[in-house]
Write a structure and sequence with these properties.
Elements: H1 3-35
Length: about 35
C-alpha cells in the first residue's frame, strides 16, 4: 500500500463525510426545531 493510495482514499472518505454532514445535519436540526 502506497502513501498516495492511502491519501487518495482518505480524501475520498473526507469528501463523502463533508457531503453527508451538509445534507444530514441541516435536515436533522430542522426536525429537532420542529419538535421543540
Amino acid at each position: 500500500m502506497s502513501i498516495q493510495f492511502f491519501t487518495a482514499c482518505y480524501m475520498g472518505v473526507e469528501a463523502q463525510v463533508n457531503r453527508y454532514q451538509e445534507t444530514v445535519y441541516p435536515s436533522l436540526t430542522e426536525g429537532l426545531r420542529s419538535l421543540a
